[in-house]
Amino acid sequence: MNLPDYLYIPFSHAITPGYSEIERKVMQSDIVFCSGVHCIAGLQWKDFSNPPSVTFIYARTCVSTAKRVCFQNGIKVIESKEIACALFSDYICGEQICGTLFDPVIKAYASLDGYFPAKKGAAAAQNYLGDCYYNGNGVEQDYKKAVEWYSKAVEKGEANAQNSLGHCYYYGYGVEQDYKKAVELYTKAAEQGYADAQNSLGHCYCYGYGVEQDYRKAVEWFSKAAEQRNAVAQYNMGLCYHNGHGVEQDYRKAVEWFTKAAGQGFADAQNSLGHCYYNGYGVKQDYKKAVEWHSKAANQGNAVAQYNMGQCYYYGRGVEQDYRKAVEWYSKAAEQGDADAQYSLGDCYEYGNGVEQDYRKAVEWYLKAAEQGFADAQSKLGCCYYYGHGVEQDYRKAVEWYSKAAEQGNAGAQNSLGHCYRNGYGVKQDYRKAVEWYSKAAEQGFAAAQFYLGKLTAEGNGIEQNTEAGMRLIKEAAKNGCEDAKQFLEHSDKTLSEELCK
Which long-range contacts (CB under 8 A, 24 or more apart) does 415-420 make? Predict the structure, then answer.
């Protein structure tokens, strides 16, 4: 069978110092195919019998080397792995040359345990095929088939497959979600020293998925994985020290672990390290370093870091204040569904910071954040309906959104809800309920609520009249910066002086 010239790649010319013996043998092979990120290797060995006994792990090394040499020598590669698989499959059938195929074609070999001299090789092949179906690489994504192949490898004790099958049970992919089964599989892999499984098991103990929540055990497993330089586990160790979960709170140690993970390029850790520099947790406060680390994570598409970059530009911390750049970063994060960023972007549109003022767009972004349960956005959305900004004025809808935020403890919304009940806007007038909501906001030190609660108390509306107590609240509100309270007191003093002069 004749193959197109661009598929045939002799490697005899590519042998250079620095390659291992196994890599040299691969490069002396007759044919190697590359397809983008994946490679398909067909190896006709000159120093083995035909067909040779090649384990999957050995073949995987061959493929990795083939890819390396192709890219180093600028050799053209096949862009479609499906075409490569089909062509190479035909080539093997026609010429009966031994080959180990990646992606869907490997199924033929993975199912024939007897073909592989090493039991480990068969299990690795089955696990790889599970990965193909799990991720949809070269085949249509099919979680049930992924579970089928992972299960075959798990029967042989393959740690990677135990971890992957654990993920399937954890997320309910291809099987009914079962945290206990996930923990069982993670444990088997973790006890074999598989770092990803150790981290996943730590996660289950940290949040109580499939096991009783136990921060100490979480730290124990995170630590095992972190010692193997697992970046996610190092990040999780940082979180444990930052929050004091399973260990004594220690910001310095948190920074140490975040730094290890961040150094490996793990975006969440880079963002958390920026957070530490921004707030001075475990390190001297340094906005410029905060920006440096937030930027690394943000450029990887980390939504929280993108929001934090927006904050830095909005307030001019570590960078020159620039509302337009703040909007750029808020937008990136908001489009990924980050509620903080959606709220901040809405705020920019409401006040015209970095963009042209646009109440409708403000409402659009507030709504996205509000629907995620973000209390500040719910309160803002209530205000938009109350005043008719960007939407038609609607007191009932205002009350609806104020209520959602107020029930989450948002003081501004509690105060606004008090207004609605005091004045009968969107609800039946009810002084008792007005007092109830003003009281909740006043307890949080919300000055406007203190003022209105003081007035109702002095007047005896919705609460037993107590002029002295009411005046104390009004004075407290004035002290806390409420202009209405200040004006009220000035007017009261003037009225009293006039009365005394009569």
Answer: 415/441, 415/446, 415/448, 415/449, 415/452, 416/379, 416/382, 416/383, 416/386, 418/449, 418/452, 418/453, 419/452, 420/395
Taking the CA atoms of the chain, what radius of gyration do you get in angstroms?
32
Averaged confidence pLDDT in the chain? 81
Q: Say if residues 165 and 127 touch (Cβ distance below 8 Å).
A: no
Half-sphere exposure at residue 180, Cβ-oriented, CA atoms within 13 angstroms: 1
248 class by beta-carbon count within 10 Å (0-12 exposed, 13-18 middle, 19+ buried): exposed
Is the predicted pLDDT of residue 490 greater than 80, yes or no?
A: yes
Q: Helix %, strand %, coil % for the chain, to 5?
A: 65, 0, 30
445: alpha, beta or left, given left = phi > 0 and alpha = psi -120 to 50? left
Enter the DSSP assignment of 106.
G
SS3 of 465-481:
CCHHHHHHHHHHHHHCC
Angle at 182 between CA 187 and CA 156, to 5 degrees: 60
- Output the six-digit token pair for 159: 């740690």
CB of 254 within 8 A of CB of 281? yes
CA 438/CA 234 separation, integer angstroms:
46
* pLDDT score of 80: 40
**Which of 33, 22, 21, 130 lies closest to 75, judged by CA?**
33
What are the beta bridge partners of residue 35?
38
Tokens 């609800």 belong to 427
Instruction: State yes or no: cis peptide before 51, omega within 30 of 0.
Output: yes
User: Is residue 14 scored above 90 in pLDDT?
Assistant: no
Of the segments 74-83, 112-121, 344-353, which one has the largest average pLDDT value? 344-353
> What is this structure's pTM?
0.76
- The predicted pLDDT at position 261 comes to 97
Dig out the tokens for 41 from the structure: 């290797």
Tokens of 111: 């199912």
CA distance 34 to 78: 6
Q: Is the dihedral of CA 49, 53, 58, 63 positive or negative?
A: positive
Half-sphere exposure of 45 (CA within 13 A, CB side): 18
What is the rounded CA–CA span in Å between residue 327 and residue 333?
A: 10
Dihedral sign, Cα of residue 51, residue 55, residue 60, residue 66: negative
SS3 150: helix
Q: Where are the alpha helices (DSSP H) in 244-317?
A: 251-263, 267-279, 287-298, 303-315
Distance, first Cα to last Cα, the chain: 118
Q: So what's the pLDDT on residue 494? A: 63
78-117 pLDDT, tens per residue?
A: 434 444 444 333 333 333 223 333 333 344 343 433 333 3
CA 99 vs CA 68, 176, 231, 470: distances in Å: 19, 37, 35, 88
